[in-house]
Amino acid sequence: MQLYMQWSSGPKYQVDAGRGDQYVVDLDNHTCSCRKWDLSGIPCAHGIATIHYKGGTPVEDYVHSYYSKDSYMTLYNNLIMPINGSQLWEKTNQTAIKPPAYTRQPGRLRKLGRQGMRMRCSICGSSGHNKTTHHRNLPQKEKPLSRGKGRPRKIPNQDPAVASDKANSYKS
């Protein structure tokens, strides 16, 4: 995709994406009129092209701060606590939790098919194929040497004297 940038005013740029598509990118507000940058917080293709066109600052400075490692660490600082394996859990006198009772869903039952049955051919009696696919399991026939299509070729290493004698015999 070929993008053409044009400075408009201040931090705003107009990006021509071809086929009549034009977008306005505002680098100070971290927005693009395609709205991908606004929704995700990560610069869209138009924004990245404009950042490279302007130069100076890396693209990572335009990514929203909630994608940074610091915000990730503060978010999960107290939430993910380590736990012991199930063999070290405290034993209680409570009854074990059981899954809920199964209730059959309404509707017609599905046919399970013929699982566990072997296919047997009604023509030859062997297993592994049926009457429909019997012809695929026959042994290969030896193909006879086929003659080429069209007119037979002249033999290139033929003696010219013999060839002229044959040609004279046809004329007379």
From TrEMBL:
UniProt-annotated stretches for the region Disordered: 125-172
Keyword Glycoprotein included in the entry's annotation: no
Domain spans labelled SWIM-type: 23-55
Keywords annotated in UniProt: Metal-binding, Zinc, Zinc-finger
Keyword Zinc in record: yes
PANTHER family to which the protein is assigned, alphabetical: MUTATOR TRANSPOSASE MUDRA PROTEIN, POLYPROTEIN, PUTATIVE-RELATED
Protein name: SWIM-type domain-containing protein
Organism of provenance: Prunus armeniaca
Upper classification of the organism: Eukaryota, Viridiplantae, Streptophyta, Embryophyta, Tracheophyta
